Structures are given as C-alpha cells and as structure tokens.
Amino acid sequence: MNAPVTELGVAAALLRSRARLRRALSLPGGAWLAHWGNADTEAAYLKPDHHTLSFYLEGGHAVRCHQAPSARGRPGSLCTLPAGHESRWDVRGSLQLLHLYLPRMQLAEAAERWFDTDPRFATLAERIYFHDDSLAALCARIAATDWRDTGAPLRLQLLMLDVQARLLDSHSAHAPAIRSLRGGLSPAARRRVLDRVEAGLHELLGLQDMAQAACLSEFHFARMFKASFGVSPHVWVMQRRLARARRLLVDARMPLDEVVRRCGYAHLSHLNAALRRAGLASATSVRDAARSLR
C-alpha cells in the first residue's frame, strides 16, 4: 500500500497553499499521479523524499521560481525536481499542473536495470522549465486518460515506465559519491550478479547461485546486496521476474504458457497472483491493455 499522496513532500506543500487537488491516482511501487489546479499563491518545496516531474497543462506564464527567476513557463513546459531539492514559487494567475511523484528507489532500480548505474547515486537533474517533445507527449497522454476507468491504472503504469526510461535517458544526473558510504557490491560484482539473475529467471534461482557470481559467502553477499539495492536478493529476483513477464506480455507475441516458463513461474495462476500483488490485472488483461495503447 502506497503512502497517501497527502504525505508526499511536494503534494503536502501544495495543499498548504491555495492549490486544489483535482484528482490523484496511486500506482504500484509507491508512485503517484496528481492533477492540480492553482492560482495566486505561494509554495515552498523543502527537501521532499521523492522525485517530481511537473507538466504544465494550462497557464504558467506568470509563475516564478525563486531559484530560476528568469525562467518562464507555459502550457507544455516541464520541470524535474529531484528528491532533496529546495525551491520556492510565486504563482500568479491560474494554471493546471500534472505532477508525477517517483520514489527514490523506484527510479534507482530502473537506472540499475537499464543503464548500469549504481542505484545509490542515480537521481534526476534539477531543471526549471524545459521542453522535451517525447516526454511532453507521454504526460499529455497520462493527463488525457480517464483515471477512473477500469483499465486506466494498467495503461498509466505502462506509460509511467516509458516516462522513467525517458527521464533516465535524457534528464538524469549522477549524485556525487559520498566518501563516508561503506559497503555494497563492487561494480564488477553487481554486473556479474545481475547477469546471473537475468540468465536464471526461468529457473529456481537461489542465494547460493548469486553469491557464487559475486565470489562472496552467502551471508556476506546478502548484506552487501541489500546495501547496494535497498532490498533483499529474493525481493530483487521477484521484481525482475515480474518485470520480464510484464515486458513479454506488452510485446504480445508470445503464448501465455511460454511467458510463464521464461519468467520462472510455476503456472499461469502463479503469474496472475504476482501481477495482482503488484497492483496489476491478469496476464491477459495486461496484454490487452498494451495492445490498446498502440
């Protein structure tokens, strides 16, 4: 269960101003979508514990960020506000905003999987008002979706995956290494372990298999893995199985029984149970939703 959107730093700050939350939707993994209406107010974001992507739907011409006073917004403008940032805003006139709130770990795990980035150091670049046609198009599709529709959460989650990929590809920054940080797997060990996981998702993959890939004892490996990724090896493997299944279902060219086999599930009902625990629908529904986005 995700924390309530009202407990997220940026959303809580907006609620303390005159902003009005028009709609909000929780997505698996702790992410949230929020559609805001705002007018003639002030807001301060003070070191939120999540990343924020902001997309202007209407207005924005008279909004000023104290940290970038010369920047000017308009409909279609984007802002990336990384976790831990601080900014103060003066809002003049009315506007509508789409906010996407991403937990640190969700983005960090995506950075590790897709770009081989140490998950402890992956973050977004702080950018006040910029334009990215691909990212704006994804945000526009999210905003245009009826979030109350039965199939909306699944379609929106698939769009959010594309948003994360675009953010990491074009709008990420590497946080400077913290000298006091200790522990964690070396880059070479991380790569060997992750390669072993991806190669073994179709089989019964145990702690011993991963520890051997890292050239560590099982006990030491388990501690170092959690220091690097923030979750246990077992949880990581379950997440990777689900991610592969979702990718194959979205591709929609493979029979369901083959998806089950390649992802290491015992049977289709086992896969369906994993999908539902992640807030998704059945394998058939995931595949149908992906086709509807084409």
Structure description:
- Strands 1, 2, 3, 4, 5, 6 and 8 form a seven-stranded antiparallel sheet that branches.
- About 2% of the residues have low confidence.
- This protein has two domains: 170 residues, Jelly Rolls, CATH 2.60.120.10; 106 residues, Orthogonal Bundle (Arc Repressor Mutant, subunit A), CATH 1.10.10.
- It is built from eleven helices and nine strands.
- The longest helix is centred in the middle third of the chain and has 19 residues.
- Helix 5 packs antiparallel against helix 6.
- The protein starts with 8 loop residues before the first helix and ends with a helix.
- A hairpin with a 5-residue loop joins strand 1 and strand 2.
- It has 294 residues and is of the alpha+beta class.
- The protein is globular and about 60 Å long.
Keywords:
294 residues, alpha+beta, Jelly Rolls, Arc Repressor Mutant, subunit A, 2 domains, 7-stranded antiparallel β-sheet, two-stranded antiparallel sheet, 11 helices, 9 strands, 45% helix, globular
